[in-house]
Design brief:
Elements lengths: L7 E4 L4 E6 L3 H11 L8 E3 L3 H7 E2 L2 H10 L4 E7 L14 E5 L4 H10 L3 E5 L12 H8 L5 E2 L11 E4 L6 E4 L10
Parallel strand pairs: 1-8, 3-6, 5-9
Antiparallel strand pairs: 1-2, 2-7, 3-7, 4-5, 5-6, 9-10
């Protein structure tokens, strides 16, 4: 389904996420419409491991040590994008990308099966402050907009913690499920 341009709602170690194929412009546009976000909102590459992150982001030794300490886990990191990231996916003015290594078994299994990252975003609908965390609710809300809802049981109501690693020191942009004390 993903290779054919489908959008999937899948559980992660924080909340459910909407994911699609990295290189499918049509699916990316649909994902943005479902979420009600524009191209200034970072989408996130869900990667299998840290070696995959290095393909899509420039990571220095300091950043790598931080990433290694908390991944896999409920964190999204803003990093400088490499040329491997399609221009339309990186932040238009900053050339950055959100990256994460989820710790959820279902997300990891799907990433392993595909053999490449997925592009995703927290499953928060326009006008909502909390992500959807129940597969049945997601099916009802998005039945005509996504191709598949993977039922992995209930997830947290908290999205990932988002940490910008592009500056001299980590900057917490959103405090979510992941403990941000390590970045102080």
């Amino acid at each position: 389904m993903i290779d054919a341009g489908g959008i999937v709602a899948l559980p992660t170690d924080s909340s459910y996420a909407l994911v699609c194929h990295l290189d499918d412009k049509g699916a990316v546009d649909r994902l943005r419409r479902i979420r009600g976000i524009d191209d200034r909102h970072h989408l996130t590459l869900l990667c299998r491991d840290l070696s995959e992150i290095g393909t899509y982001a420039r990571v220095d030794n300091r950043q790598y040590r931080l990433l290694k300490a908390v991944t896999p886990g409920p964190y999204t990191f803003i990093l400088e994008a490499t040329r491997e990231v399609p221009r339309r996916l990186s932040h238009p003015s900053r050339k950055t990308i959100g990256l994460r290594v989820p710790g959820h078994a279902i997300a990891q299994a799907l990433l392993a099966e595909l053999g490449q990252p997925l592009l995703g975003t927290t499953l928060m609908l326009p006008g909502s402050d909390l992500p959807l965390n129940d597969a049945d609710e997601i099916r009802v809300a998005l039945q005509k907009q996504v191709e598949l809802v993977v039922d992995g049981g209930g997830c947290s109501l908290l999205p990932t913690s988002v940490v910008d690693l592009t500056g001299d020191a980590p900057l917490v942009l959103r405090e979510g499920l992941g403990d941000v004390a390590i970045f102080a």
